[in-house]
Amino acid sequence: MRIGLYPGTFDPITLGHLDIINRAALLVDRLVIGVAINRDKGPLFSLEDRVAMIEAECAALGAATGTEIVAHPFESLLIDCAHDVGAQVIVRGLRAVADFEYEFQMVGMNRAMDSSVETVFLMAEAKHQAIASKLVKEIARLGGDVSKFVTPPVKAHLLKRFGK
Question: Is 157 one of the annotated active-site residues of the chain?
């Protein structure tokens, strides 16, 4: 069984994330969405809320692709999470050259710790490449329309969170 791990904070999950998840699901039999518990980033949504949004958004994708898609919270090194879930491949999304520089360093460090876990990079559709959770949260906080960046249920979570 080919198992992939797609890690991130998913605060919140965006259309860009979902595009990468859909593409990755076509490459593996089981896709684990690693939901990072990163207290330093000060997430807007609780871990439980982020996991629930991911599970809700990915249910249809899993059914459509025939791939098991599960959310898995983690607070460890990425390579340790890959070991924990049995992943042979780590999936990373790229938006721009700036992403690549950071990702290049991370791949090097992960390979130094375990060269048997491969990393693959996927790019979202062009219309989703500029989407960043941080910017989506800022737009929602300031009363802007996030409909082009997230699904309607995620938009509802954002509006509720910001009291709009």
Answer: no
